[in-house]
Design brief:
Layout lengths: L4 H12 L8 H9 L4 E4 L6 H11 L3 E5 L3 H14 L5 E5 L5 H12 L3 E6 L1 H4 L2 H8 L3 E6 L19 H8 L5 E5 L4 H11 L5 E4 L7 E7 L4 H11 L4 E5 L3 H13 L4 E4 L5 H12 L5 E4 L12 E6 L6 H8 L9 E7 L1 H11 L4 H19 L4 H8 L16 H4 L5 E2 L1 H13 L6 H9 L4 H5 L16 H13 L3 E4 L5 E4 L1 H8 L5 E2 L16
Parallel strand pairs: 1-6, 1-7, 2-4, 2-5, 3-4, 5-6, 8-13, 9-11, 9-12, 10-11, 12-13
Antiparallel strand pairs: 14-17, 15-16
The structure holds adenosine-5'-diphosphate (ADP).
Protein name: DNA helicase RecQ
EC number: 5.6.2.4
GO molecular function: 3'-5' DNA helicase activity; ATP binding; DNA binding; four-way junction helicase activity; hydrolase activity; metal ion binding
């Protein structure tokens, strides 16, 4: 397809009514129109849908869009229908349709009316559909929420693993477009491998959300009053409060209501009618606050959510990023406040204990990352972006002062000598230990793993005895963010040296660190020191 920029703009205006592309959209659309495999990684709200919808509407044939949730598909299809009724039609093919409806959808595909066909991965495995689609002209297959392919993402769906084989059956050289808002390098790698798109053009947008303010506060017995105070200080603004359990959702919504705050509860235990009523009340601003489990949010596009509070710490940094990402979509203020207590981490660990071992290990590795986020005293934005493989300049970067740690910095200390000790121990133990064992080796503590490797007989065993575990954990996190060490997440967190780390060992330079925040685990009466 031969295209120039004017054609693209005209089509953008015609189908969507927008005058300009957002971010990387234009380049992505061009690449898809050229029939190339494409991988789009953009944060929530970045405008991913348009990246495949526009080329689908502009091309011959039907684009298949694989999407994990029926509700999500319905939203998308309704939105497309609202945009361009005659030109491009979007349809859903899934188990909720009647026989007659299925017949009609098939007819529309064959006659070329259907430009976008939304399917769930399990529908796509049905022989009946595969047989039918094989005979039709398929422009490309877009895999939305592609992180569902990876166990290291926040929403693993085994059905996503079979997509490549099915697409191969649909025809030769059908371009594949993968889209996700999860940017960890490990998840990206899994997606590319699983879909067999080594040759894909990759479009990676920055995950920095400069208008969001990140804050962590200790969670005490007074957490409800803390939340009430915060909401009252922000009265009239829209906000979401996430809780882990349905019971807590209901209790907290009630507490807020009793305190004169207009709030509704939302979780998957309510019937569909109540859920959609409460959701609409929030969207239409009949209430200010929705107290919810993570069931609330997917596909919700309220641009002016001003705060997202986490009553409980979420299970990973990806989840936290997704959930807080619902704040400030319009570019305005968005306060992301998480309440943290180590007890909640133990609760999450307990939840996982019934699961298969591999899943537990992954779960624990992800959980340790969010603990790191909560306890760190460095720029929270830098911490999150580092997790997503992105460097952030905490002095001049966009949104550099938008977190509690940066606004109230702790005193920094020279840690050059200790960084040398740390890196030497990682090297001296042949890069096979996780943080936990490295800290033991530094502080001279033995456990089974240390003993089995005879690390306690090494000359460096205990060279960091003068500091406690908390100190070393903080230093490890900061050294990781500085890129002197790296963590192999697929090995559940084994620490390795980077070339930068090797260089530091040879030629140590100043390294200023701050101690982590300290939370009192015993009484849960957390204090940030
Ligand atoms: P994502 O799927 O990446 O979370 P969406 O596709 O839902 O993002 O888009 C987020 C919002 O941005 C939507 O409200 C959409 O209408 C809007 N949007 C997308 N592209 C443009 C554009 N080029 N100009 C203006 N608004 C856009």
């Amino acid at each position: 397809m031969k295209l120039n920029e004017i054609d693209l703009r005209v089509s953008l205006k015609k189908y969507f009514g927008f005058s300009q592309f957002k971010g990387l959209q234009e380049q992505v659309v061009k690449t898809i129109l050229q029939g190339e495999n494409t991988f789009v990684i953009m944060p929530t709200g970045g405008g991913k849908s348009l990246c495949y919808q526009l080329p689908a509407l502009m091309q011959e044939g039907t684009a298949i869009v694989v999407s994990p949730l029926i509700a999500l598909m319905k939203n998308q299809v309704d939105a497309i229908r609202g945009l361009s009724s005659e030109m491009g039609v979007a349809h859903v093919l899934n188990s909720s349709l009647t026989k007659t409806e299925i017949k009609q959808v098939k007819k529309d595909i064959s006659s070329g009316v259907t430009k976008l066909l939304y399917v769930a991965p399990e529908s796509l495995t049905k022989e009946e559909y595969v047989d039918f689609l094989q005979k039709e002209k398929i422009s490309f297959v877009a895999v939305d929420e592609a992180h569902c392919i990876s166990e290291w993402g926040h929403d693993f769906r085994p059905e996503y693993r079979n997509l490549k084989a099915i697409v191969n059956r649909l025809g030769d050289n059908i371009p594949l477009i993968a889209l996700t808002a999860t940017a960890t390098p490990k998840v990206q790698e899994d997606i590319i491998k699983n879909l067999g798109i080594n040759d894909a053009k990759i479009f990676l947008a920055s995950f920095n959300r400069p208008n969001l303010y990140y804050e962590v506060r200790p969670k005490t017995q007074n957490v409800d009053s803390d939340i009430i105070r915060f909401v009252k200080q922000n009265s009239g603004k829209s906000g979401i409060i996430y809780c882990l359990s349905r019971k807590r959702v209901e209790e907290l919504a009630q507490v807020l209501q009793v305190n004169g705050i207009s709030a509704v509860p939302y979780h998957a235990g309510f019937d569909a009618k109540t859920r959609s009523k409460h959701q609409d009340m929030f969207l239409m601003e009949d209430v200010d606050v929705v107290v919810a489990t993570i069931a609330f949010g997917m596909g919700i596009d309220k641009p002016d959510v001003r705060f997202v509070i986490h009553h409980d710490i979420p299970k990973s940094i990806e989840s936290y990023y997704q959930e807080t990402g619902r704040a400030g979509r319009d570019g305005g203020e968005g306060h992301c406040l998480a309440f943290y207590s180590y007890k909640d981490v133990e609760k999450l660990e307990k939840f996982m204990s019934g699961k298969p071992v591999a899943e537990q290990e992954i779960g624990n590795a992800l959980l340790q990352e969010i603990v790191g986020y909560a306890e760190t005293s460095i720029s929270r934005r830098k911490f999150i972006l580092h997790y997503f493989g992105e460097e952030f300049d905490e002095v001049n970067g966009e949104g550099a002062d938008m977190d509690d740690n940066t606004r109230n910095p702790k005193e920094k200390h020279e840690a050059k000598d200790n960084v040398v000790k740390l890196i030497s121990v990682v090297k001296g133990t042949s890069e096979k230990f996780k943080s936990k064992e490295i800290v033991k080796a530094l502080t001279g503590k033995v456990n089974a793993l240390i003993a089995s490797h005879k690390t306690d007989e090494k000359e460096f065993f205990g060279i960091g005895k003068d500091r406690d575990k908390g100190y070393w954990m903080a230093l490890i996190r900061q050294v990781l963010v500085a890129g002197l060490l790296k963590k192999e997440i697929e090995q559940y967190g084994i620490l390795h040296l980077t070339p930068k780390g090797e260089e530091f060992l040879e030629n140590p330079t100043s390294f200023m660190m701050t101690r982590d925040h300290v939370y009192n685990k015993a009484t849960d009466d957390a204090i940030v020191s």
